[in-house]
Write a structure and sequence with these properties.
The structure holds two protein chains of two kinds. In chain A, α6 packs parallel to α8, α12 crosses α14 and α12 packs parallel to α15. Helices cover 30% and strands 17% of the residues of chain A. Chain A is α/β, with parallel strands linked by helices. Chain A has two domains: 271 residues, Aconitase, domain 3 (2-Layer Sandwich); 176 residues, Aconitase, domain 3, CATH 3.30.499.10. In chain A, α3 links the parallel β4 and β5. Chain A contains 15 helices and 19 strands. Chain A has a five-stranded parallel sheet, with helices on both faces. In chain A, strands 17-16-15-18-19 form a five-stranded parallel sheet, with helices on one face. By secondary structure, chain B is of the alpha/beta class. Chain B has a domain of 132 residues: Aconitase, domain 4 (Alpha-Beta Barrel), CATH 3.20.19.10. Chain B is built from eight helices and eight strands, in the order ββααβαβαβαβββααα. In chain B, α3 links the parallel β3 and β4. The radius of gyration of chain B is 19 Å and the shape is globular. The chains are: A alpha/beta, B alpha/beta. At the A-B interface, β1, β2, α2, α3 and α5 of A face α4, α7 and α8 of B. Chain B: GO terms for molecular function: 3-isopropylmalate dehydratase activity. Chain B: Pathway: Amino-acid biosynthesis; L-leucine biosynthesis; L-leucine from 3-methyl-2-oxobutanoate: step 2/4. Chain B: Belongs to the LeuD family. LeuD type 1 subfamily. Chain B: This is 3-isopropylmalate dehydratase small subunit. Chain B: It catalyses: (2R,3S)-3-isopropylmalate = (2S)-2-isopropylmalate.
């Protein structure tokens, strides 16, 4: 029977199947960070269990870290304690740690791929729902809870039932100003925030195939925002070119063998999915969200929908009330106070280049605070080498040091209550960027233009 | 993990859809390194104002509702993978969450912590929410052994589904880690036989 990409990788990782439909499922790489690992270390220690395959674990500090003065001790005591705890646990168990100040430190989903730790055909987990990012390489990658972090530490396996499969095909060429972020925000707006729950998604079609690895990572990153456990894109020459020469990518003869194997990782003709959806790339416009979940998105020049099913009206009204918007309203002309460019969705070098290209020779609006947080030390270094830091500084953008930052506001980077922030991150939940903050999700290009104009505009009018 | 067989309790209604894990426990409260104490910040920004005072109109503060069962709108627990969400609900005294739809990761996390995510139809959920809002003393009986949600006042027993393995774990208080560690031999054999290893 013809196999899907998911079938091929899944089947290759089943240690054994047990009655009742569960598989003992093998994990190739386990990424850990300071927030969801301490209780897992405690658990295996309390049970007297050793780490089964510590060399398959890589750690970094990202969620809690400040984005200013990283060379100084962390000021906030609870954050410092959590980051110190990670350092202590990694030292005790001899786990590779790219901690604060390390040249490889970064947001876990930026760091893994750029070092070549993430490879096609792998299974990758992390105690973070945006682990779906790594699926961009044709890997099965998904977020897990802390109990599962402990399970992987103890056995390198999880007990799982195989998810249902969904293929989302987008063919055609996108319009000017439409980026990877717009494609995925569009798809999520069509499916809703729970539309892919229970599924693993494969993204297919020329719109995804034409994306760079950075763009594919943005797409797969947001799979969880429609409920999917993961998203994946079959590896191709773009994938191989990206990986070739990266630090942890196979070298020499191993590289040739790897590429030969990776080239077999695609969905075969005639393979069936539990669900198939198709969209036309030409229908996608630059997107923005207007509500408090990522499914509440629309074309930037559209009006906030009014046709909401009766059963959903109460939640819909609550959401719009929080945002200070009305059904039927256009967002064009709305003044915004903050622009945040960063997060595991959009903080890679390509994102920074795109922002720099637009803002070069321009200046942000005086009332806007524009923060740009690179995804990793590596991205930061590259930005400096390319002179992006200077372009941003001249435009009044503040380039910070790497971390998750205002995406989830665990550190000092918070948006004040009531303020509007156009953000390149992945979640617009109530209070996500700080208590009372109002988030509008968009692409780095939309964010850059918004920062310069100081208000939401139809960006297609601002492109050369 | 605490064992679960049958629970009889009144319930707290929360008729909001798509309750995400940032509402259940905001990220700024994820800095603790133990599993305990998250209950005090459950639904933090809905339950307390900026000064830390309880908001009078939130269901947990009105004094009208109590119990160990939370009944919430569909797509409960969407968003992040933080297990702290399940810990917070459990720590606040709940043993069951009833909804018409659960996000995957939350569901798994709940089951790994002895918190039962009980899925009913949209129609049953709507009736339950109305029933509890009209009569906060309504008692529900969750019988995991028989996989039934009993609503005595309706004289109805509503069957619910649960994975057979997970049911066994909840009833006996077992978790996956015990099972997986016992698979060591099979796992090592798998590792040595892989055609392609990373």
């Amino acid at each position: 029977m013809a196999k899907t990409l998911l079938d091929k990788i899944w089947d290759a990782h089943v240690v054994k199947s047990i009655p009742g439909g569960l598989d003992v499922f093998y994990i190739d790489r386990h990424l850990i960070h300071e927030v969801t690992s301490p209780q897992a270390f405690d658990e295996i220690e309390a049970r007297g269990l050793p780490l089964f395959r510590k060399e398959q674990i890589v750690a970094t500090a990202d969620h809690n870290v400040p984005t200013k003065n990283q060379h100084l001790p962390i000021e906030e005591p609870l954050s410092r304690f959590q980051v110190d705890k990670l350092t202590e646990n990694c030292a005790k168990h001899n786990i590779e740690l790219y901690g604060l100040g390390h040249e490889k430190q970064g947001i876990v989903h930026v760091m893994g791929p750029e070092l070549g730790i993430t490879q096609p055909g792998m299974t990758i987990v992390c105690g973070d729902s945006h682990t779906s990012t790594h699926g961009a390489f044709g890997a099965i990658a998904f977020g897990i809870g802390t109990s599962q972090v402990a399970q992987v530490m103890a056995s390198q396996c999880l007990l799982l039932s195989k998810p249902k499969s969904m293929r989302i095909t987008v063919d055609g060429n996108v319009k000017p100003g439409v980026t990877a972020k717009d494609i995925i925000l569009y798809v999520i707006s069509k499916l809703g925030t729970g539309g892919a729950t229970g599924f693993f998604v494969e993204y297919a079609g020329s719109a995804f195939r034409n994306l760079s690895m950075e763009g594919r990572m943005t797409v797969c990153n947001m799979s969880i925002e429609m409920g999917a456990r993961g998203g994946m894109i079959a590896p191709d020459q773009t994938t191989f070119d990206y990986l070739n020469g990266r630090e942890f990518a196979p070298k020499g003869e191993r590289w040739e063998q790897a590429v030969a194997y990776w080239a077999t990782l695609f969905t075969e003709e005639g393979a069936t999915f539990d669900k198939e959806l198709t969209f036309d790339a030409a229908d996608i416009a630059p997107m923005i969200t207007f509500g408090t979940n990522p499914g509440m998105g629309m074309a930037i020049d559209a009006v906030i929908p009014t046709d909401v099913p009766v059963s959903e009206q109460a939640s819909y009204s609550k959401s719009l009330q929080y945002m200070g918007f009305q059904p039927g309203e256009s967002l064009l002309g709305k003044e915004i106070q903050y622009v945040f460019i960063g997060s595991c969705t959009n903080s890679r070098i390509e994102d920074l280049r795109q922002v720099a290209k637009y803002v070069q020779g321009k200046r942000k609006a005086p009332h806007v605070e524009a923060i740009i947080v690179p995804g990793s030390k590596h991205v930061e270094k590259q930005a400096i080498e390319e002179g992006i830091d200077k372009v941003l500084a001249e435009a009044g953008f503040e380039l910070r040091e790497p971390g998750c930052s205002a995406c989830l506001a665990m550190n000092e980077d918070k948006i004040p209550a009531g303020a509007y922030c156009v953000s390149t991150s992945n979640r617009n939940f109530e209070g996500r960027q700080g208590p009372g903050s109002r988030t509008l999700l968009a692409s780095p290009l939309v964010a850059a233009i918004t920062a310069v104009e100081g208000k939401i505009v139809d960006i297609t009018q601002y492109l050369n | 993990m605490e064992k679960f067989e049958v629970l009889q309790s009144t319930a707290v209604p929360l008729p909001i859809e798509n309750i995400d894990t940032d509402q259940i426990i905001p990220a700024r409260f994820l800095k603790a390194t133990s599993r305990e104490g998250f209950g005090e910040n459950l639904f933090r920004d809905w339950r307390f104002d900026n000064a830390g005072q309880p908001k009078a109109d939130f269901v947990m503060n009105t004094g009208r509702y109590s119990g160990r069962i939370l009944v919430a709108g569909k797509n409960f627990g969407c968003g992040s993978s933080r297990e702290h969400a399940a810990w917070a609900i459990y720590d606040a005294g709940f043993k069951v969450v009833i909804s018409s739809f659960f996000a995957d990761i939350f569901k798994g996390n709940a089951l790994n912590n002895g918190l039962l995510p009980l899925q009913v139809s949209d129609e049953v959920l709507a009736r339950l929410l109305t029933q509890i809002e009209e009569d906060p003393q309504t008692t529900l009986v969750v019988n995991l052994v028989n996989q039934e949600l009993e609503v005595p006042v309706w004289e109805e027993k509503i069957p619910f589904a649960i994975d057979a393995y997970k049911k066994e774990c909840l009833i006996n208080g077992y978790d996956d880690i015990d099972f997986l560690v016992n698979q060591k031999e099979a796992i090592e054999q798998y590792e040595s036989n892989r055609p392609w290893a990373y």
